[in-house]
Recover the amino acids of this structure.
């Protein structure tokens, strides 16, 4: 249950936010917009200094920061690496500096680093599964505590990622039950119904949160369940889709707007498709495509969204680590948040979205990135969407208009390609290849990945480009 002091604080915060000020005898006009930070894919690697493992295992997560600060490794990670403590500190400092008067922070998944369990067994000298799970829990707790320290008292709404687990293949039931209270307390800050959250989160890693004092409902989906390469669980997928349908229906009936958060997006896995030679015939025609989701699950999901036009005002995903977007329908465009971790050769980045206060509709965003080659003191402004593309108005409409322009306008196409990797468009000295996976040859794969969700439509688009 929400503590009285916290509840009173949040009521005051919401009233200040809605009124636009604290009041000094006059009532200033309420601001018509607000901002919110969106970040994702931290992939924190506590093993970056293996010598610290014994002390980390013995300590509570609340004591980890002081342990990391004793490390002789103070440099930021190289490209193709997960996030270490120096990068985590730098990223959260920059996020804190850009919070402004945000009423909420958005996180779209993957707290833990890649190959987590194997690294624990290798560097911490244990093959005990229970010990690995306990260490995973402490790592998740540590990252969430660091985020909470930067966020102050505002809630962090989130979606779970595929590495948020003990297996690396999506949230498993034991991980969910062991970390549910952490996510409720350290991320949501206890601002939503406890029983309702635990009921769905411990079941399969999804939840909804009605933010107090607003008519906004946030839905955090577990789309890892829908993904290819994950053990199929049709009953769990059907249960989540049924819950999504009913949750959207109740939002519509109650006059609420919805932000829809997920980790793995629908559509094509464009990087895998473009870089797998067997996907193309001898004439260069695309004959097969790697997709993100099981196509039946995707069709059912998109069918549900089509029933509620105008209800969902924001859809966010992550997972690809790239700065991209996908048009799920004319009414619903999905923005993909780039990652903090540079593990795919991308520049670390996050975004600050601007929303209309009345409808919770995004109208713009500002991207901030970090140049690992130049090593500046903080994340820097990279680009603002409205300025880069000379577009105004609701973001979904602008992105829908941008898609055909990317096909015909070479200047805008060049801007998009340059931003895709969040600024790292250099050459990997080890492989002599570009860090940015988009080339003039494979561009049709990435272009069609924006506008074509179904596999056959995507393949036809690429071959007709």
């Amino acid at each position: 249950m929400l503590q009285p002091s916290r509840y009173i604080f949040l009521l005051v915060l919401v009233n200040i936010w809605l009124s636009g000020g604290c009041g000094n005898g006059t009532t200033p006009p309420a601001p018509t917009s607000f901002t919110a930070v969106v970040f994702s894919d931290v992939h924190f690697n506590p093993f970056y200094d293996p010598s610290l493992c014994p002390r980390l295992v013995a300590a509570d997560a609340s004591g980890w920061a002081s342990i990391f600060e004793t490390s002789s490794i103070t440099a930021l990670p190289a490209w193709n690496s997960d996030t270490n403590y120096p990068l985590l500190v730098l990223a959260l400092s920059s996020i804190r500096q850009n919070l402004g008067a945000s009423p909420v922070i958005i996180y779209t998944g993957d707290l833990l680093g890649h190959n987590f369990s194997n690294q624990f067994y290798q560097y911490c000298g244990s093959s005990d599964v229970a010990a690995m799970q306990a260490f995973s829990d402490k790592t998740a707790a540590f990252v969430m505590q660091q985020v909470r320290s930067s966020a102050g008292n505002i809630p962090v709404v989130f979606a779970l990622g595929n590495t948020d687990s003990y297996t690396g293949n999506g949230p498993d039931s034991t991980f969910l039950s062991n970390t549910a209270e952490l996510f409720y307390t350290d991320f949501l800050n206890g601002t939503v119904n406890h029983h309702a959250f635990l009921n769905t989160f411990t079941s399969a890693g999804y939840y909804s949160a009605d933010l107090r004092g607003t008519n906004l409902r946030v839905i955090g989906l577990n789309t890892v369940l829908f993904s290819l390469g994950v053990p199929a669980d049709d009953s769990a997928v059907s249960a989540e889709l049924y819950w999504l349908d009913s949750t959207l229906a109740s939002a519509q009936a109650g006059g609420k707007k919805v932000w829809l958060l997920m980790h793995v997006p629908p559509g094509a896995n464009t990087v895998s498709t473009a870089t797998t030679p067997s996907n193309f015939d001898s004439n260069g025609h695309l004959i097969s495509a790697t997709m993100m989701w099981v196509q039946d699950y995707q069709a059912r999901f998109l069918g549900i969204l089509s029933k509620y036009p105008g209800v969902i005002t924001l859809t966010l995903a992550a997972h690809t680590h790239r700065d991209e977007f996908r048009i799920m329908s004319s009414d619903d465009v999905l923005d993909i948040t780039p990652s903090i971790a540079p593990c795919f050769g991308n520049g670390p980045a996050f975004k600050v979205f601007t929303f209309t206060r009345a409808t919770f509709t995004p109208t713009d965003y500002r991207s901030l990135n970090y140049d690992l080659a130049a090593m500046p003191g903080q994340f820097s402004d990279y680009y603002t969407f409205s300025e880069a593309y000379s577009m105004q108005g609701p973001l979904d409409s602008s992105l829908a208009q941008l898609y055909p322009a990317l096909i015909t306008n070479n200047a805008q196409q060049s801007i998009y390609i340059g931003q895709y990797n969040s600024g790292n468009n250099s050459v990997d000295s080890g492989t002599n290849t570009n860090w940015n996976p988009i080339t003039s040859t494979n561009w049709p794969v990435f272009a069609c990945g924006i506008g074509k969700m179904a596999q056959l439509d995507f393949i036809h688009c690429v071959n007709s480009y």
Summary: DSSP finds 16 helices and 14 strands in the chain. Confidence is low (pLDDT under 50) at residues 1-23.
